């Protein structure tokens, strides 16, 4: 089955710097890659996603890139702000995410220092 | 409802007892998921319901775990004869489901039920 590895487990940056979180997946049939943000005491919330027919997607300060050949995808946050501090999870799915389960990475705790 | 509601938010139980965790998904969402979040272990898939189809139980860790979804809405996750290693946050999520619906694959999570087994 699918296995998703996520690095780093913790990341500390200064406000205004960029943050990058990387994930690799094992199943070449995976075609949907969302990123979720979990704030303390809350459930994870989708922030951005990408499908396998797209190499990059941007939404304001966040972007996701996908390298299908290498089977890895990354989350990029620019101009980080204290409110970006949270745990971020990557995930992969072989059925477009609409049917069946998502396999999540173990999460990255991002701390943005003011 | 406006979001996914889970109860109880916190549950402390003694080893060997049975527990039930409840999830009220967003109205109209046909897909419902249960995940377990242990410290440092990310989100572990447990079970998935889609409409009237047979649930995908491939993530349930043992036969002590079971889940039902009544009337295509509310779901209950039951853990029998709880063990200390069952201590975790149990997250429920729902989505529109279906292969072609817009936003079908966006999971909306509840805040979770924190289970502590003494």
Description:
The complex is a heterodimer of chains A (114) and B (118). With 114 residues, chain A is mainly β. Chain A is 0% helix and 54% strand. In chain A, the strands form two sheets. In chain A, strands 2, 4, 5, 9, 10 and 11 form a six-stranded mixed β-sheet that branches. A five-stranded antiparallel β-sheet of chain A has the order 1-3-8-7-6, with no helix packed on it. Chain B has 118 residues and is mainly β. Chain B starts with a strand and ends with a strand. In chain B, the strands form two sheets. In chain B, strands 2, 4, 5, 8, 9 and 10 form a six-stranded mixed β-sheet that branches. Chain B has a four-stranded antiparallel β-sheet with strand order 1-3-7-6, with no helix packed on it. Chain B has strands at residues 5-7, 10-13, 19-24, 31-37, 43-50, 65-69, 75-79, 88-95, 108-109, 113-117. Classes of the chains: A mainly beta (114), B mainly beta (118).
Features:
heterodimer, A: about 110 residues, mainly beta, 6-stranded mixed β-sheet, about 55% strand, globular, B: about 120 residues
């Amino acid at each position: 089955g699918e296995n998703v590895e996520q690095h780093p487990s913790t990341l500390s940056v200064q406000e205004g710097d960029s943050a990058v979180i990387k994930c690799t997946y094992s199943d070449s049939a995976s075609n949907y890659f969302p990123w979720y943000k979990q704030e303390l005491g809350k459930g994870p919330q989708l922030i951005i996603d990408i499908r396998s027919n797209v190499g990059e997607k941007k939404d304001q300060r966040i972007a996701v890139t996908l390298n299908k050949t290498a089977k890895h995808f990354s989350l990029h946050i620019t101009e980080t702000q204290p409110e970006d501090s949270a745990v971020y999870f990557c995930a992969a799915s072989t059925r477009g995410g609409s049917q069946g389960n998502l396999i999540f990475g173990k999460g990255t705790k991002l701390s943005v220092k003011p | 409802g406006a979001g996914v509601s889970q109860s109880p938010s916190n549950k402390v139980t003694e080893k060997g007892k049975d527990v039930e965790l409840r999830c009220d998904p967003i109205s109209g969402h046909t897909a419902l998921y249960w995940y377990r979040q242990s410290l440092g272990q990310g989100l572990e898939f447990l079970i998935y319901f889609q409409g009237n189809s047979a649930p995908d139980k491939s993530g349930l860790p043992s036969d002590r775990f079971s889940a039902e979804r009544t009337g295509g809405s509310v779901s209950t996750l039951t853990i029998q004869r709880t063990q200390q290693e069952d201590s975790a946050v149990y997250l429920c999520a729902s989505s529109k489901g279906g292969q072609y619906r817009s936003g079908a694959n966006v999971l909306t999570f509840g805040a979770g039920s924190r289970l502590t087994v003494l």
